[in-house]
Write a structure and sequence with these properties.
7-stranded mixed beta sheet; alpha/beta; 311 residues; Rossmann fold; 2 domains; binds S-adenosylmethionine; 10 helices
């Protein structure tokens, strides 16, 4: 049985139904996410892009004193923003290699192709898989590793999940290695909610695409019209959570198994957690990191932090 099938059935048989957002990214999901990154409402991409454009030289000087290093990027996607840094690092004569990691082989192939065209001198070694496995499997390097975790991917974990993930990451690093992480910050809740509930309905489509993917890959019969897309933001926890809610009582089959839905029963799809500086400090300490430097956009909507191992 594939991991996809195991996880989908386990999530839909749970008391509180859930699907993992890592499964959003099949080929159509990758396309939809690229559209999301270009939406006016999805400020995250614009802000992180602004940070990279304005601070690319300081970022390079913070992560390297001129020694060779390896960038491992977890959940690289199409590398839209990362390319700003990679280009600048190459032009500055930095000695580095680039290992993008992504669960979507499709997006990695797109990234590799575009990098070969746009940055032919870049030394790339891509890894397809879950970032939980990547760090264990990527060969140890005598060089300094700088792990990139951009786009506020860390927000896809609850606080406890993030502490556990980052602690494992820290344990896999050498003392001089660094983490370079993009984090979305608390702000006007209506701005946050719009990023996950845009006027054109692209984020809605992005969520519903996972039902279509289950239909395609597990021979399912979800009727997407019977599900309502419902994101909401809790300003206290900083969690924006997206749900798909069954409008009716219904039974859906997939992989030969039947799953029943009560009217208005929800499937939890994705968490996109927002931080403030205090919560981010706590996250660093609880996972064994300390702050080296922070880079903000002009409105302080987003931050990219450089963290090193504590002590
Ligand atoms: C929200 S996108 C962000 C892409 C990029 N980091 C950016 O800032 O634009 C998340 C990316 O992480 C990948 N991803 C999500 N969960 C993953 C996991 N558990 N392991 C590896 N890749 C994952 C997805 O395929 C997708 O390309």
């Amino acid at each position: 049985m594939t991991q996809f099938k195991i996880d989908i059935l386990e999530g839909l048989k749970a008391n509180q139904k859930r699907l993992s957002s890592k499964y959003f990214y099949d080929a159509h999901g990758d396309e939809l996410f690229q559209q999301i990154m270009h939406m006016d409402e999805y400020y995250l991409t614009q802000k992180e892009h602004e940070i990279f454009e304005n601070h690319k030289d300081k970022i390079l000087k913070t992560i390297s004193d001129g020694e060779p290093f390896r960038i491992i990027e977890l959940g690289a996607g199409d590398g839209l923003k990362t390319k700003v840094l990679l280009k600048h690092f190459l032009e500055s004569g930095a000695d580095f290699t680039y290992t993008p990691v992504d669960i979507s082989g499709n997006v990695l192939a797109i990234l590799e192709k575009s990098l070969k065209e746009e940055l032919p001198n870049l030394n790339i070694e891509a890894y397809e898989g879950d970032y939980f496995d990547a760090l264990a499997e990527i060969s140890e390097s005598p060089e300094k590793d700088v792990v990139f975790f951009l786009g506020s991917n860390v927000g896809n974990f609850s606080h406890e999940g993030a502490v556990s993930f980052l602690t494992n990451l820290r344990n896999a690093l050498k003392p001089s290695d660094l983490l370079f992480m993009g984090v979305d910050l608390k702000k006007d809740p209506s701005l946050i909610l719009s990023a996950y509930n845009d006027a054109q309905g692209i984020t809605r489509e992005f969520n519903l695409n996972l039902l279509d993917r289950i239909n395609r890959e597990l021979n399912g019969n979800f009727d997407r019209n019977q599900f309502l897309h419902y994101p909401y933001y809790n300003p206290h926890t900083g969690e924006c959570r997206s749900y798909l809610i069954s409008r009716v009582r219904q039974e859906v089959t997939m992989a030969g198994e039947a799953i029943s839905f009560r009217p208005w029963e929800a499937i939890f799809m994705e968490i996109s957690k927002k931080y403030d500086d205090m919560q981010l400090d706590l996250l660093a300490r609880e996972s064994g990191f300390e702050l080296v430097k922070s880079f903000y956009d002009q409105e302080s909507w987003f931050v990219d932090v450089v963290w090193g191992s504590l002590g």
